[in-house]
Design a protein that fits this description.
The protein is of the alpha+beta class. It has helices at 6-21, 30-38, 47-60, 63-90, 93-104, 107-112, 119-134, 138-152, 164-173, 179-195, 200-215, 230-240, 245-269, 275-286, 300-304, 346-351; strands spanning 292-295, 311-314, 326-331, 337-341, 358-363, 369-374, 378-380, 384-408, 416-421, 424-429, 432-448, 452-454, 457-459, 461-467. The protein has three domains: 6-269, no CATH class; 273-364, no CATH class; 367-469, Jelly Rolls. The strands form three sheets. Strands 6, 7, 8, 9, 10, 11 and 14 form a seven-stranded antiparallel beta sheet that branches. Strands 2-1-3-5-4 form a five-stranded mixed beta sheet.
């Protein structure tokens, strides 16, 4: 095969332009901030990525920009490697270019690889392994596999799902976009796998690697965990058009344009501050000097950015600061809170964990001290903040309060629960939120008839708030 090099050059230009056009204005997810902090104090994660970022930061002297620069370089390098792998595998440079562009113009890659985290770097390592496989270069393949093992291989924690289609949709289809984008592409990928059926090493690598990515993923963290499996699928898609390079490039143009439109709400929103960073900026400028900010676990990294200006603590320390003005940094909207948000979209729900989209900063009007059976506060965009309570729970209050809001979530394994709050009894149905008025008290005892075990905890009901009528 004669090489002109033109397709690979076009791939590099397109991917570089796409990378520059989709750079975020600031941090979004907590992982990004932890990587930035690792450039100063290493925490042991992603050693090769952090080492490369530290090298770049030696010259740039800005962790955020250093991480962005590394992600952009890894994106361009990964695209060229995948294009070369496709060229060798399919016998045509344009088919290789199609494989690279299908991957890097996919919705998941458009959203995640420009970020200041390790996603683009990890995908580039996989592209290097595929390049070595395509050229049957065992030494290079061994180096690539060793790098992947050092970088991010973790323990297998198989997913549990009552619906196998939900599992497949989350990790196989969703990275490629809506069903109108994903279904034709995956059909092409299956066809391409048949075309390449004699490349036993490539098929085996694809099967084992994709299975590993799915097995170590989490239904609650979006599609980021399976991004390293996407290059193989992109090669299979290009293989389906191995005899028709012009059709492959046409399909890339159509798919790429549709993908950009699909994720456009996310890309446009992150030209400004993300909701967590907007909330942190507001807190730094407006909280009282002696106030304490209690952060949801997923927002602790964001809160740490203002630790030198404001007192910051994990939300699990709720009962330790009742004598001070207390603010909660949590996910989801709620009453009497300042809310920071990005617009919702189909892409946000399918590709991301759905977290970080709506953040609220609220003053805890009536601080309380969890004593027995009260688990650390949690929050989500959809449900706001809550405490899980065990079957027996006790809470002390600095002042007498007389209204309690509880919820039995729709995902609870029981259909109802009878709750006794001090001397007031009520029965709550699954999916119901209830406000219960009680006699004013400085201590609240909440007893539940039913409970269930989950992740080592005894769960009975969710406590939403304790307040005055």
């Amino acid at each position: 095969m004669n090489r002109s090099g033109l397709p690979a050059i076009i791939v590099a230009i397109v991917v570089a332009a796409r990378g520059l056009a989709t750079l975020p204005a600031g941090y979004w997810q907590g992982e990004e901030i932890r990587f930035a902090q690792a450039l100063l104090t290493y925490d042991g994660s992603a050693p090769l990525f952090v080492a490369a970022a530290r090298f770049i930061n030696f010259f740039i002297r800005d962790p955020f920009r250093s991480l962005l620069a590394l992600s952009l370089a890894a994106t361009i390098g990964g695209a060229i490697l995948l294009a070369r792998a496709g060229s060798d595998l399919l016998g045509n440079e344009w088919n290789g270019a199609a494989a690279a562009l299908i991957l890097y113009l996919s919705p998941a890659m458009l959203v995640f690889t420009p970020l200041p985290n390790a996603e683009a770097f990890d995908v580039a390592l996989v592209a290097l392994a595929l390049f070595a496989l395509a050229r049957t270069n065992r030494v290079l393949l061994a180096i690539a596999c060793a790098a992947m093992a050092i970088e991010w291989f973790g323990p297998i924690a198989p997913l549990t799902s009552d619906n196998v289609w939900a599992l497949l949709g989350r990790f196989i289809a969703h990275p490629w976009g809506s069903r109108f984008l994903a279904v034709p592409l995956l059909i092409a990928a299956v066809t391409g796998a048949v075309v390449l059926r004699r490349r036993i090493a490539m098929i085996a690598f694809a099967f084992v690697f994709t299975a590993y990515c799915v097995a170590t993923g989490s239904m609650t963290t979006g599609v980021q965990s399976v991004l390293p499996a996407l290059p193989v699928i992109a090669l299979f898609v290009a293989a389906a058009f191995a005899r028709w390079p012009a059709i492959a490039i046409t399909a890339v143009v159509i798919y790429g344009a549709a993908s950009i439109l699909y994720v456009r709400p996310i890309l446009e929103a992150r030209r400004g501050a993300s909701p967590p960073m907007a909330a942190i900026a507001y807190a730094a400028a407006n909280l009282e000097p002696d106030a304490v900010l209690l952060a949801d676990p997923k927002l602790e990294s964001h809160a740490s950015l203002i630790a030198e200006q404001r007192a910051v603590a994990p939300i699990k320390d709720l009962g330790s600061h009742v004598e001070r003005s207390t603010y909660l940094l949590v996910q989801g909207a709620g009453p009497m809170s300042r809310t920071f948000s990005w617009p919702d979209s189909d892409a946000y729900g399918k590709i991301t964990s759905a977290g970080y989209r709506v953040i609220s900063l609220r003053k805890l009007q009536h601080p309380y001290i969890p004593r027995i059976g009260v688990y650390a506060m949690e929050s989500t965009v959809a449900d706001g903040p809550w405490h899980w309570l065990a079957r027996e729970a006790v809470i002390d209050l600095p002042s007498s309060l007389d209204r309690v809001r509880i919820r039995l979530p729709v995902r609870a394994p029981i259909s109802s629960n009878t709750i006794v709050i001090n001397e007031t009894a009520t029965t709550i149905m699954r999916g119901e939120t209830r406000t219960i008025d009680i006699q004013p008290a400085a201590r609240i005892s909440i007893r539940s008839t039913n409970s269930w075990a989950a992740a080592g905890r005894d769960l009975a009901i969710q406590l939403l708030s304790i307040e005055h009528r």
